[in-house]
Amino acid sequence: MEYDPIKRSLGNVFNKSPFRRKLFYKLLDLIMLRSWHIHRELKVWAKGNGNDVKIFDAGSGYGQHSYYLSGMNSKWEILALDVKDEQVADCNNFFKEAGRTNVKFIVGDLTTYKKENYFDLAISVDVMEHILEDEAVFVNICASLKKGGMLLISTPSDQGGSDVHEHGEGSFIGEHVRDGYNMQDITDKLTRAGFSKVEALYSYGTPGKISWKLSMKWPIQMVGASKIFFVILPLYFLITYPFAYILNWFDVSNVHKTGTGLIVKAWK
């Protein structure tokens, strides 16, 4: 399934006003389990850092993670990069209207972008599975971090990530160039890129896999089949989200022996 057309449709619905955009971000943070994991890690990271912080959102998408970061500390300087011109322009307009002046969005390619020894933190949330030249990106991000800086990654694993469970199955998301990372493989790639320490944990364990189907896979399939399902989505989530919320909490609160996602931290 091609995910980008659905994302564009959602953007058209929620970009009509700053209020709708903020509501959209809040809904994404509640529904998407990866945001739960990322927010947990960001809160831990923030405890060891002050106000003089520079952050790189590597593959910013809708901009929801930059919005969350800018709300954690208004003095943090955040640079968000995405390959899509229209999305970058849209984010810059919204953030200006919202008064989040500590965030700037730019158009760029992660395989070539580099800002030597500049950032304290880089985040890459569900981006690397879309980029074939992943090692070039890791090298550039490592070079762009200060000594001791950290890269935080969320990406599908090879344990059923992208909803691929058998050899020969295709990814649920058509834009993915890989079905998921092997934990040792991504650790090795980051080490070769220059990172001195790497920690990887599974996310989307058994609770998360069920939640993902309830809150992501099935709604996306419905909307992909017909846009008329946009009308019934509020009722669908009203019924299913309480269960997804509990499942998300269990997923974030426990260590998993395996999972369809990975949360990876790498230090320069």
Account of the 3D structure:
With 268 residues, this protein is α/β, with parallel strands linked by helices. It has a single domain, classed as Rossmann fold (3-Layer(aba) Sandwich). 46% of the residues lie in helices and 18% in strands. The chain contains nine helices and seven strands. The chain has helices at 4-14, 18-31, 33-46, 64-72, 85-98, 134-144, 183-192, 206-225, 233-253, and strands at 54-58, 77-82, 103-107, 119-125, 145-156, 197-203, 261-267. Strands 3-2-1-4-5-7-6 form a seven-stranded mixed beta sheet, sandwiched between helices. The radius of gyration is 18 Å and the shape is globular. Residues 164-172 have low confidence and may be disordered.
The number of distinct helices, counting runs of at least 4 residues, comes to: 9
What general form does the structure show?
Answer: globular
Strand content: 15-25%
What structural class is derived from the secondary structure elements? Answer: alpha/beta
CATH architecture: 3-Layer(aba) Sandwich
CATH topology, which one?
Rossmann fold
Reading off the top of the CATH hierarchy, the class is best stated as Alpha Beta
End-to-end CA span: 36 Å
Based on DSSP secondary structure assignment, what is the total number of beta strands?
7
| Count of all domains | 1
> What is Rg?
18 Å
Rounded mean pLDDT is 89
**Would you list the SSEs in sequence order as H and E?**
HHHEHEHEEHEHEHHE
Specify the biggest β-sheet: 7 strands, mixed
Can you list the strand order of the major beta sheet? 3-2-1-4-5-7-6
Helix content: 40-55%
Q: Quick one: CATH superfamily?
A: Vaccinia Virus protein VP39
Contiguous uncertain segments of 5+ residues: 164-172
